[in-house]
Amino acid sequence: MALIQCPECRKTLSDQAEKCPDCGYPIKPLSKPKNEEPIIVNNNAKEGCFLQTLNVGCVIVVIVVIVIALALFVGC
């Protein structure tokens, strides 16, 4: 570990510091860890429980409307 000067405020700090503790100037560039895997977005993911329930509810409503329409049509 060595001591270096901040390029912004000229205060002494560790070369291991990510940023200057006095002024916040970034010393080390932000980089992601080497063992981190990229995030893969799956557009073909299955629907969640809420959407499945919503679809079943819509089907039930359509069936009820059809039954009522048929009852009114046959009843006339």
Write up this protein.
- This protein is mainly alpha-helical.
- The chain folds into 2 domains: 1-30, no CATH class; 46-76.
- Helix content is 36%, strand content 8%.
- The protein has 1 helix and 2 strands.
- A two-stranded antiparallel sheet has the order 1-2.
Strands, count: 2
Regions with little confidence, pLDDT below 50 for 5+ residues: none
Mean pLDDT: 81
First-residue to last-residue Cα separation: 93 Å
Biggest sheet features:
2 strands, antiparallel
Helix/sheet category: mainly alpha
The domain count comes to: 2
Q: What is the alpha-carbon Rg in Å?
A: 32 Å
Strand order of the largest sheet: 1-2
Helix content: 25-40%
Taken in chain order, the helices and strands follow as EEH
Q: Beta-strand percentage?
A: 5-15%
Count helical runs. 1
| Molecular shape | rod-shaped
Brief descriptors of the model:
76 residues; mainly alpha; 2 strands; rod-shaped
Detail the topology: elements first, then pairings.
Blueprint: E1 3-5, E2 12-14, H1 49-75
Antiparallel strand pairs: 1-2
Can you describe this structure in just a few lines?
The chain has a two-stranded antiparallel ribbon with strand order 1-2. The longest helix is centred in the last third of the chain and has 27 residues, at 49-75. The protein contains one helix and two strands.
